[in-house]
Amino acid sequence: MMRKITFGLLWLGFISYAFFFAPPEQPDTFELIKNLSTGNWQGINPLIISLFNIMGIWPFIYSAVIFFDGRGQKIPAWPFASASFALGAFALLPYLALREPNHKFIGEKNLFLKILDSRILGILLTIGAVVLLASSFQGNWGDFVHQWQNSRFIHVMSLDFVMLSLLFPTLLGDDMTRRGWKDNQLFWLFTIPLFGALIYLCVRPPVEIENKIGVEKSIIL
Description:
- There is one protein chain.
- The chain has 221 residues and is mainly α.
- It is built from twelve helices and two strands; from the N terminus they run αααααβαααααααβ.
- A two-stranded parallel sheet has the order 1-2.
- The protein is globular and about 55 Å long.
């Protein structure tokens, strides 16, 4: 119960901060988001470009864990995982508050789950993250700090990255157990922001499937 209350309060606090305490919204925010989304990056700080695209990698990382965690939960995982592509931690925190500890995967993996379970996905995401990190070295940190202090979009997106980095370990232990990794000291390596999670997706063994007679068929997504 304390875990649920903690995540619930964290979600409410994050929302409250984003709307009432973060820097004001800038009039060019919609244009900036449109240009970032369409690849029209001329004149945009490479640091912001890299951060925006890395925020597109995080939902894939979480999906590769949550869709397995969601098997057997009372709530479906897919609405939260899908919404995270647009809302990040704002969408994932309610799932973390409502879920129960889940150390097993019951049933079979469909094609979608097989893709999420594949190490190839982790390798592709890692390559993408490395490219984005390398491109960020061309960025202007002074400009980024200025925008972080004055733009709600940049400010909240940065905090969302931090939040996603901090929340991943809360799902990691159960996912490792589902794969037969119990009391593994590599856990702390996998908690390193972003790249720890990516390394985990690249090296984790396939999920162990457990079939139980008389278990109610659970929702896959």
